[in-house]
């Protein structure tokens, strides 16, 4: 990353960014100037359906979440975070690179937040359309998972569980946009460890209407 900008938006090349993403992020920054965050992700929509956490039957769609990983498809980060945590590990072929980056953020005391708004539309797997072999999950995930576990141990192992235990939702009162024009205060909800250790990690989602 260049050092001539403070904040960047990391995006897949198969996303459609909805209007308001920058103003929502700007509001987050201005209302949380001392919050120790590593990444801030928007919510995803795929084929008209919003994605949500599988293990969150009581999840409030207007409440931020705090996790071990950013959304791999889209997230904001600051140049100082990049300098503190280090760059993405390019050994990963597909998936797990965001989880690796998120864990390194958490090790440095920086949380990975997911905002309920704005929502971005995800084309899903479009970067692989010209590589039929890479579309196969067994090929796409297997090598990345092996490498990930060589660095961190099992995704449900004690090292990652210990990092999850450091996530703290009792932080400075957080302001965010629940929907266009709707601003709310409150605290984020920590994603359960069972979901943080899910596979694949993008970020542990299913489709809901």
Oligomeric form: single chain
What share of the residues does DSSP label as strand, in percent?
25-35%
Largest sheet: 7 strands, mixed
Radius of gyration: 16 Å
Separate helix tally: 6
Helix content: 25-40%
> Could you tell me the number of beta strands?
11
Q: What are the secondary-structure elements, in order, as H or E? A: EEHEEEEHHEHHEEEHE
Low-confidence stretches: 199-209
First-to-last CA distance:
37 Å
Assign an overall shape. Answer: globular
On the 0-100 scale, what is the average pLDDT?
78
Overview in brief:
By secondary structure, the chain is of the alpha+beta class. It has helices at residues 21-31, 79-85, 97-107, 137-152, 158-164, 193-196; strands spanning 7-11, 15-16, 37-46, 49-53, 65-67, 74-78, 111-122, 174-179, 182-186, 189-190, 205-208.
Topology:
Elements: E1 7-11, E2 15-16, H1 21-31, E3 37-46, E4 49-53, E5 65-67, E6 74-78, H2 79-85, H3 97-107, E7 111-122, H4 137-152, H5 158-164, E8 174-179, E9 182-186, E10 189-190, H6 193-196, E11 205-208
Parallel strand pairs: 3-7, 5-10
Antiparallel strand pairs: 1-6, 2-7, 3-4, 4-11, 5-7, 8-9
Name the descriptors.
6 helices; 28% strand; globular; two-stranded antiparallel sheet; single chain; 209 residues; alpha+beta; 7-stranded mixed β-sheet
């Amino acid at each position: 990353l260049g050092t001539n900008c403070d904040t960047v938006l990391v995006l897949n090349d198969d996303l459609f960014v909805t209007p308001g993403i920058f103003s929502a992020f700007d509001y987050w920054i201005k209302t949380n100037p001392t919050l120790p965050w590593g990444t801030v992700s928007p919510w995803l929509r795929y084929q008209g359906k919003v994605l949500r956490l599988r293990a969150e039957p009581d999840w409030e769609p207007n409440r931020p979440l705090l996790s071990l990983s950013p959304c791999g498809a889209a997230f904001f980060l600051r140049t100082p975070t990049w300098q503190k945590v280090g760059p993405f590990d390019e050994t990963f072929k597909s998936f797990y690179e965001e989880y690796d980056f998120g864990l390194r953020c958490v090790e440095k005391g920086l949380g990975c937040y997911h905002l309920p708004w704005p929502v971005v539309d995800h084309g899903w797997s479009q970067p692989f359309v010209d590589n039929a072999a890479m579309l196969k999950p067994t090929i796409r995930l297997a090598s990345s998972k092996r490498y990930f576990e060589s660095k961190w141990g099992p995704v449900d192992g004690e090292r990652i569980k210990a990092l999850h235990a450091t996530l703290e939702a009792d932080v400075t009162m957080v302001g965010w946009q629940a929907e266009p024009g709707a601003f709310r205060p409150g605290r984020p909800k920590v994603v359960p460890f069972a979901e943080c250790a899910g596979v694949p990690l993008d970020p542990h989602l299913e489709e809901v209407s």
